[in-house]
Amino acid sequence: MKINPPLLLQINRSYLKLVKGDNFPRCYFQRWFGADFSHTETPTTKSNIDASSAVPISSSSMESNYSQKMAADSTWVSKIILYSFCQSSCSWRIRFALNLKGLSYEYRAVNIDKGEQFTSEFEKLNPLHYVPVLVDGDVVISDSYAILLYLEENYCQRPLLPVEPQLRALNLQAASIVSSSMQPLHMLSVLRYMEERVGPEEKQSWAKFHIQKGFSALEKLLTGSAGKYATGKEVYMADVFLAPQIAVATKRFNIDMSQFPTLSRIYDSCKALPEFQASSPERQPDAAL
């Protein structure tokens, strides 16, 4: 796209006016009009951090090899706090996303098996008593979908939504299927309720039915767009939601993924990523508790 000098000057002036008033995320101008906008002198906020200045994950004292290498040249320290449970697939999504974006965070374990989500302290963060909860300064966000959108808008390095409208919508749709039509129907509190009312066998049947229904829809939805990952060659939000869901489905509910070849291929690609491996349940500080 060629932009003549007068138009470029007009765009730049509009950009300065917007970002100085904090009315528009800086990252969208950078992504639409190129990296030149990242060098414009504007007030520094946490939404203006680029990938070169970010410290990758450090879950408690644990750091992966790839994060150590990136941290060597970093001067910026994140204040992000993640309330997480190692076995929670919703928390896993956020850990995966934070790793992909190279954002450090403080890991605070909430053991939902022991009912720690019902403490008065945690209730102030999320009255629904669910993990994950992300705290970024004065901002407190629960619900993994809302957290991912917040991170995407405020931390622009390593975008998790593509610029192209069709692919962007496809990622949001796939993420919504996982977060709205699959995971809530087999979450721990729901399965415990089902077991109390109808027994353990019906509990498993219920979970498998809804998981397979969701995977069937996702297989059809993504078959035309999938490459190495859900919507092509890059990891995006659809992958962030999909990979932990498949891991939980296979390990906890014995779902046969051979009937979903596209999803299986996407999962195999995600499993090879160091960011995904570092976000896995067994790699978290509370895994041995």
UniProtKB/TrEMBL annotation:
Q: Name one GO molecular function term.
A: maleylacetoacetate isomerase activity
> What Gene3D superfamilies does the record point to?
1.20.1050.10, Glutaredoxin (3.40.30.10)
Which branch of life, at top level? Eukaryota
Might you give the EC number(s) for this enzyme? 2.5.1.18
For this protein, the record's InterPro entries field holds:
Glutathione-S-Trfase_C-like, Glutathione-S-Trfase_C_sf, Glutathione_S-Trfase, Glutathione_S-Trfase_N, GST_C, GST_Zeta, GST_Zeta_C, GST_Zeta_N
Name of the coding gene: LOC104237502
Identify the PANTHER family for this entry: GLUTATHIONE S-TRANSFERASE ZETA CLASS-LIKE, MALEYLACETOACETATE ISOMERASE
Specify the GST C-terminal domain's residue ranges: 164-289
Catalytic activity annotation: RX + glutathione = an S-substituted glutathione + a halide anion + H(+)
Query: What NCBIfam families does the database record attribute to this sequence?
Result: maiA
Ribosomal protein recorded as keyword: no
* The keyword Transferase belongs to this UniProt entry's keyword annotation: yes
Single Gene Ontology BP annotation: glutathione metabolic process
Annotated ranges, domain GST N-terminal: 78-159
PROSITE patterns documented for this protein: GST_CTER (PS50405), GST_NTER (PS50404)
Q: Which keywords label this protein? A: Transferase
Record's GO cellular component terms:
cytoplasm
The similarity comment for this entry is: Belongs to the GST superfamily. Zeta family.
Q: Under which name does UniProt file this protein? A: glutathione transferase
